[in-house]
Every structure is written in structure tokens, then in C-alpha cells.
Amino acid sequence: MSRLILLLLASLTLTGVLAAEDPRQRLEAIEADIGRIDRWLSSSRRDRDSLQDELRRVDLTLADLASRARRTRDELDTHRRRAAELEREITELQGKEADARAAVQATIRQAWLLGRRGPLQLLLEAESPERIARLLAYHERLARARADALEAYRDNRRELERSRTDLAATRERLERDRITLDTQVAELAEARKGQAAALSRLEADIDAREASRAELARNQARLEELLERLSRQAAAPTGESFAANRGKLPWPVDGRLLQGFETRRSGSRRTGGVLLAAEPGSTVRAVHPGRVVFADWMRGLGLLVILDHGGGYMSLYAQAESLLRNPGDIVEAGEPLATAGQSGGGSSSGVWFEIRRNGQPEDPGRWCRPPARA
Fold first, then answer.
1. Is residue 333 part of a domain?
2. Is residue 5 part of a domain?
3. Integer Rg of the chain from CA
């Protein structure tokens, strides 16, 4: 980013009109990036809304299934209790059946014994015929009542058996329903977990893209502000022509050359300028009359001063310890601009110096008098 802004500043001309397309192209690139992010955000927000709608549907379905599963378990408990009651009733009826069967058998036996006694035997036993007739009728009615009771018991038992069979079938069906509902609840819960995780990831991506967009918007605003400010401030500085002093310019400091001019990046070193040694706090001076168009900190270069000399020429003085000029100041050759240092991550105390023509770096050694060598 700092190299890009440096190219932006180097592209300013004497009249304040941009001579290179780098700043505008950068602004267009930022606007394009913002447009792409906006489209992604719009699509992702729709996806997020769809996921939230799906989560709502799953949550409601889960709630319904959980309610149904709870009702099914309650019905199963009710049927289990009813089945237990039926078993007890059946056991009681079985006892009553045994008692009724024994009573009926005793009545039949007594009736059979009475039926075998002849008239003479009954007279000898001093039993009156009326009493004997009543006794026989009583035994007959009692036997019939016992037989009816036994048949009613058997009917009740058959009904209980049918009820028990129906209860068993209902319990089996409810158990199948419970297993099915529990399986559906588990599957939906797992699906909901995956959807919630996907939604969480999408929310995080949206937050990250929104933060990126905000940073791009801030960069766009800074670039536009800088372009506008420098355009207002740019004016033809006083003094003789910069081009006429080729090979005659002084160096900004008297230090030895630590890094020569390179146009291609070599590892992590800067390119497009030279590094001159200087004690911390020593004065960095203008090499030619010009107007200060930039004086601020810039990433990768530290504290930086840029002079516009007119005719598309600019000089740059970076990694300063402190700045002594403000944008808009007119300076003459040899006047102080800054103090040398290591700001911006410089490896040695000194000044990073560049000369640019229409935004393109040129070898300062061809413009300045030969410096001392390291």
C-alpha cells in the first residue's frame, strides 16, 4: 500500500495535474474491490437469510416431533398401566372361575344324589315330599345361577383377552412410533447442528468481508483526500529548472552510500532509490528548490517528505526521525527538510532518497555529485 501511495505522490506534476494514471487506477481498483465485496455480501446475506429460514423450519419441526414423541411416551405409559390392570383382573377372574366351577360341581353332585333316592327311602327318612321338591328346585336354581355366573365370567374373560390383545397391538404400534420419532428427532438435531455451524461460518465470513470493505472504503477516502489536497497544493516552485542540474545536485546528507540504485526488488529491500548513511538526528536537506507536497508517515518508508520540483520531477526523503516541513511549504536548495533516522523499519540510521520523473524512479547517482562509498 505504501509503495502505491508513493507512486501516487510521484505522479504529481508542476501544475497539479496528474501525469501518471497510478492513483486513478488504484482508486478504480479499490472501487472494483468494493463492488465485488458488495456483490458477495449481498449474495451471502441472502444465503444467511435462507439458512436462518431453514433453521426456523427445523426448529419448529423439532418442537413438533418432540411434542409428539412426548405424547407417544405418555400413551405408552398409560397403556402399560392399563395392561397391568387387565392382568390383575384376569388373575382375579381366574380365581372366581375356580370357585364357581367347584360350587357348580357340588350342586350337580347333590342334585344327582337326591335324584337317585326313591319314594320309600324318602318316607323312611321322614322327609315330606313338599320339602324334598323345594330342595330339588332350590338346587336346580342354584346350579343354573352358578352356570350363568360361570358363563358370564367366561364372556368377561374373553373380552379382557381381546382388550389385552388390542392393548398389546396398540403398545407395539406406539413403540414403533416412538422409535421413529426419536430417530427423526436425532436426525433433525444433527442436521440443525450442521446448519448452525454453516450459519456461524457464514456470519464470520460476512463479518470479515464487511471489515475488509470498511478498510477499503477508508483507503479509498484517504486516497481521494490526498489526491484532492495535493492537487490544490501543487504549484510551480521557484528556482531554476531541475533538468538543467543533472549531475550537479548535492546529496541530502553527506553520509556514505549504503545501498545503491535498483529497479527490481531484491529480497525484502526497497528499490527505486538509494540509502545514505547519516547519524540519527542529522539534518536532511533539499537537493533543489521545490514545494512540499507530502510530509507524513507512510508504511514501509516511515516519516517521508516529498518535494515537487516542476516539470514532472520529484524528490523523496524517507525514514526520517522527524519532519521539519509541512505540505505547501516552499523550500530552496540546501534548506532543512527533516532529521535522519530509522523510522518505517529501516535497518540503519540514514535517509532513503529517490528522484522520480513522471512517477518513474531514476538513479540519483546520475543527478547528484558522486557520494562517498561504504
1. yes
2. no
3. 54
Range of the domain at 74: 43-209
Mean pLDDT of the chain: 78
Tell me if 15 is assigned to some domain. Answer: no
- Out of 22-26, 301-305, 319-323, which region has the weakest mean confidence (pLDDT)? 22-26
Cα distance between residue 233 and residue 87, in whole Å: 104
CATH number at residue 328: 2.70.70.10
pTM (2 d.p.): 0.41
Q: What is the three-class DSSP state of 257? A: strand
Read off the pLDDT band of 110 (50, 70, 90): low
Which amino acid is it at 109?
R
Provide the pLDDT confidence category of residue 87 given band limits of 50, 70 and 90.
confident
Q: How far apart are CA 25 and CA 7, in angstroms?
A: 11
E strand map for the chain: 257-259, 274-277, 283-285, 290-298, 302-310, 313-323, 330-331, 336-340, 350-357, 360-362
Query: Which of 270, 251, 210, 243 is CA-nearest to residue 42?
Result: 210
Domain count, the chain: 2
